[in-house]
């Protein structure tokens, strides 16, 4: 059964519309590696400089039923605006969940700890869930975006422009 051939007025390659025809001339083959671009080169640069810091902390959040949950975590790396944490015990936190993140008291005085975390709890959002552990079925870690105002560079003060009246 042949499909109806479109109008000759339409521009395009001369295609055969019979079913089952998979023959393509050599010059029309699609290069499958053209779409396999290196994903790492397309990433946007990080907002802040990540520092390898391993300190104890705590996450608290409310689950879907409103129950308060918490888990002890260890940070893997931090910047002024985000952190990656690994849970000490299995915990399932949904993507984009708002959580409170705090570093344990003894570590708050460290020089590499972001200023926002030195004061205590910081509202954060889970923006990436790490790979799942096959033994527990829960993620191995979470990337958190700290909901703090980023430090802005002070703009140079410009001289006022002369305006003719």
Q: What would you say this structure looks like, in words?
A:
This protein has 165 residues and is mainly beta. The chain has a domain at 51-146: Thrombin, subunit H. It has 1 helix and 7 strands. It has one helix spanning 115-118, and strands at 51-52, 56-62, 68-78, 82-87, 98-103, 122-129, 142-146. It has a 6-stranded antiparallel beta barrel with strand order 2-3-4-7-6-5. Strand 2 (56-62) and strand 3 form a beta hairpin. It is extended.
What is the share of helical residues?
A: under 10%
Biggest sheet descriptor: 6 strands, antiparallel, barrel
Distance between the termini: 80 Å
Name the overall outline: extended
- Low-pLDDT runs of 5+ residues are 34-41
Oligomeric state of the chains present here: single chain
* CATH architecture descriptor name of one domain: Beta Barrel
Strand order of the largest sheet: 2-3-4-7-6-5
Radius of gyration: 27 Å
Strand tally, please?
A: 7
The first-level CATH class name of one domain: Mainly Beta
Structural class: mainly beta
CATH superfamily of one domain: predicted glycosyltransferase like domains
- Count helical runs: 1
Order of helix and strand elements from N to C terminus: EEEEEHEE
């Amino acid at each position: 059964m042949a499909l109806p051939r479109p109008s000759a007025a339409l521009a395009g390659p001369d295609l055969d519309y019979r079913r089952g025809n998979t023959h393509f001339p050599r010059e029309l083959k699609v290069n499958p590696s053209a779409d396999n671009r290196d994903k790492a080169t397309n990433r946007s640069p990080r907002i802040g400089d990540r520092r390898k810091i391993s300190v104890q902390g705590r996450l608290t959040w409310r689950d879907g039923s409103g129950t308060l949950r918490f888990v002890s975590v260890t940070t893997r790396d931090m910047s002024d605006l985000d952190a990656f944490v690994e849970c000490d015990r299995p915990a399932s936190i949904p993507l984009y969940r708002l959580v409170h993140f705090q570093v344990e008291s003894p570590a708050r005085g460290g020089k590499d700890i972001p200023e926002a975390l030195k004061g205590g709890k910081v509202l954060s959002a889970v923006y990436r869930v790490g790979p799942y552990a096959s033994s527990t079925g829960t993620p191995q870690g979470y990337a958190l975006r700290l909901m703090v105002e980023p430090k802005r560079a002070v703009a140079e003060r410009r001289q006022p422009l002369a305006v003719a009246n």
